Amino acid sequence: MQNEPLAYRMRPRSIDEVAGQEHIIGTGTALYRMIKNGHVPSMLLYGRPGIGKTSLAHAIAGTSGLPFIALNATTSGKKDVEQVVGEARMTGKVILFLDEIHRFNKLQQDALLPHVENGSIVLIGATTENPFHDVNPAIRSRCGEILQMKPLDEQDIRQLIRRALDDPDRGLGRMDIRISDGQIGRLAEGSGGDARKALTMLESAVMASDDEGGVTTVEDPILDSLIGRSGVFGDKKGSHFYNLLSALQKSVRGSDADAAVFYLAHLLESGDLIAVCRRLLVMAYEDIGLANPEVGAHVLAATQAAERLGMPEARIPLSVAVIEMCLSEKSNSAYKAFDSAAARIHAGSTGEIPSHLKDAHYAGAAALGHTGYQYPHDTPIGEFGGWVAQQYLPDPVKDEAFYKPVVSGKEKKMAGIHRKLKEYSHKK
């Protein structure tokens, strides 16, 4: 057993040994009480890698005493599922832990789902993807619990590290290891809430340290090296990546420059520059819009520069663009106007284009009644340019107001012009 990785050896043996996840498996939760009373429901565990999904499944099996079988949906076939079904028939009930369950194919489902439904197989599925987007409805409907797991906080990680240092059977307790509270804290902080990463870094630090007279002393330079190359979590094109994009946009929309730069850094470290640039361009027009139209051009220039430069230099123009958007006036009136107009079109309220707006650049147009258009440039109005009062919308929607100005930044002037023109139109 000592040849297995420390993170594997230190998996909890029962639900009472699970670190963190109090919202799911704390002593007062319904799931904790069900399992303690001998009932294990089928469930989906959703969360980022290293968060403890596999460990929780092992802990549930350890507490319930039911036979436990682990499969990975990316490598298992119908034959593997049939073996699980056969085991369930022999023993009466088994727990099947299925990792990467969002990759479950139809043949596997067809073989397994009836047995999940009748209760002979308790399915514990794990996924890093949003189960409401990526897990088949047939599986979701048979899992009574869809549980979103959270990253462990530093205190939980500290507890796991100390448990590994003290445990003489599964952990490092047989070794005389000198490691300070500060160093344990650095490991906990550098793990990013990932228990597996924390224990892997601890084991690597111990194995890389000198043993003098039976005493192993962990040194700071070794920790610096391990934490520095441990990386960041960024499941490119996965749920967490899109959550980061969402957090970036909402931070910009909320004008929080610190949060926006933080999420930008996380996204760029995760490694999809093109997707980040695309989202920044969307934000420039969706959230800044008419309040500061120049921002769109600024962000386009920044994203083009970033794509040409590549990382790490791309961070420079993109950080400028993000902070400018954060601190700019904001308006979503333009695309809201479009969405409102599109909704009327989908509802069938299109009507007939007014005759004076129809194409008249051909012989016979007058005979069809395509006349009466007044050329606005022939009627100057102050410093605005040309304008004339005439109907542009079809009759069924002629009184609709799709554009509702936001009095913000440069749109404030546009809103005043819009209001005045509406007043002139009503006086005609």
TrEMBL record:
What InterPro entries does the entry give?
AAA+_ATPase (IPR003593), AAA_assoc_2 (IPR032423), AAA_ATPase_RarA/MGS1/WRNIP1 (IPR051314), ATPase_AAA_core (IPR003959), DNA_pol3_clamp-load_cplx_C (IPR008921), MgsA_C (IPR021886), P-loop_NTPase (IPR027417)
Q: Which CDD domains match?
A: AAA, HLD_clamp_RarA
A Pfam family that the UniProt record links to this protein: AAA
Q: Does the keyword Nucleotide-binding apply?
A: yes
Q: Which residues form the AAA+ ATPase domain?
A: 39-153
Q: Entry's SUPFAM superfamilies?
A: P-loop containing nucleoside triphosphate hydrolases (SSF52540), post-AAA+ oligomerization domain-like (SSF48019)
| Keywords per UniProt | ATP-binding, Nucleotide-binding
Q: What GO terms describe the biological role, i.e. biological process, of this protein? A: DNA synthesis involved in DNA repair; DNA-templated DNA replication
GO MF annotation terms? ATP binding; ATP hydrolysis activity; DNA binding; enzyme activator activity; single-stranded DNA helicase activity
Recorded hits in PANTHER family, A to Z, give: ATPASE WRNIP1, WERNER HELICASE-INTERACTING PROTEIN 1 FAMILY MEMBER
Q: Name the family the entry cites.
A: Belongs to the AAA ATPase family. RarA/MGS1/WRNIP1 subfamily.
- What protein am I looking at? Recombination protein MgsA
Organism of origin: Edaphobacillus lindanitolerans
